[in-house]
Amino acid sequence: MVSELIENHEKILGSPSWIVADTKYGSEECLGYLQDKNIKTAIKPETKTSKSGYFSKSEFRYDREKDCYICPANKLLKRKSKNYVANRISYKSNKKDCSLCPLREKCISGKGNFRIVSHYDSPCYEKAKAWYYSGYGKVMQKLRGTVIEGIMGQAKTYHGMEKTRFRGLAKVQIQFLLTATALNLKKMVRMLDVNEIKARIDSRFTNFIQLVKGVSWNLFRKKDVQVAYATGPIIYSLVHAD
Questions:
Q1: How does pLDDT run along the chain (242 residues), one tens digit per residue?
Q2: Coil vs helix vs strand at 69
Q3: CB of 18 within 8 A of CB of 41?
Q4: Do residues 57 and 67 touch, judged by C-beta distance below 8 A?
Q5: Residue 1 falls inside a structural domain
Q6: Is there a domain that residue 180 lies in?
Q7: Domain count, the chain
Q8: Helices 28-36, 123-132: inter-axial angle, 10-degree rounding
């Protein structure tokens, strides 16, 4: 899906330098593809969400040299295993450290006696995270919230995109394309000077009226000449008959 969008964009407008999207596009596959094409992203990488009221993963500091995490109580979470299918590494705390920890209630839920933190084994996540929290990345996120989300709201509220009118992928695609065309036309009108548009319309209308008048005048004049030519010999013969 993303590769198809990028290829179409490259054919029409060239390769983009930045892309902004929601977290659903923050997978390793998507981020890796975009970074391979030298495209920076304002996309938050996918992460496992923490339960409300408990320490989030961001509060655990990763030590790259020792390849371990340090919890808010300054205890180590050592590397436990790697899921090669998901390309994700897990780090586990020591049960003894957790059982005696005064922050246990804010870190472990239920009857658990240890904490696990994991991350993807890929450098693309670190790059994506740095770009996402950069100054320009934050600007891109604000633009997405006002421009992109606003357009989707217009499509749903004013252009019937809250639900599809037809069944079938082909028909729904037609509806989407027509709606997008209408929204783009509205954008183009806003980008142009309204007074200039009115002046051009008035000027073209005036020229059209003058053209119609000119054509009509020539048409009636031609008919008058034809009538005079047709009646001329009759008048001439009548004059000579006298």
A1: 788 888 888 888 888 899 888 888 888 888 888 999 999 999 988 776 667 778 888 889 989 889 999 999 999 999 999 888 777 889 999 998 898 898 888 888 877 788 988 887 788 888 898 999 999 988 888 888 777 777 777 888 888 888 888 888 888 888 888 888 888 888 777 777 667 666 766 776 677 667 766 766 666 565 554 544 444 444 433 334 34
A2: strand
A3: yes
A4: no
A5: no
A6: no
A7: 1
A8: 80
What separation in angstroms does the CA of 145 have from each of 181, 216, 225? 21, 56, 70
Q: How far apart (Å, rounded) are the C-alpha atoms in residues 132 and 146?
A: 17
Lookup: tokens for 178: 């027509």
What contacts 237, CB < 8 A, 6 or more positions away? none
Hey, what are 153's tokens? 């709201």
Residue at token pair 């499509």: 155
Q: What domain range includes position 94?
A: 57-122
- Containing H/E element for 126? helix 123-132
**Residue 63 placed within a domain:** yes
Taken as a whole, the chain contains a residue count of: 242
H or E element, residue 201: helix 194-241
In terms of Cα–Cα distance, which of 126, 139, 118, 122 is closest to 47? Answer: 118
Whether 96 maps to a domain, the answer reads yes
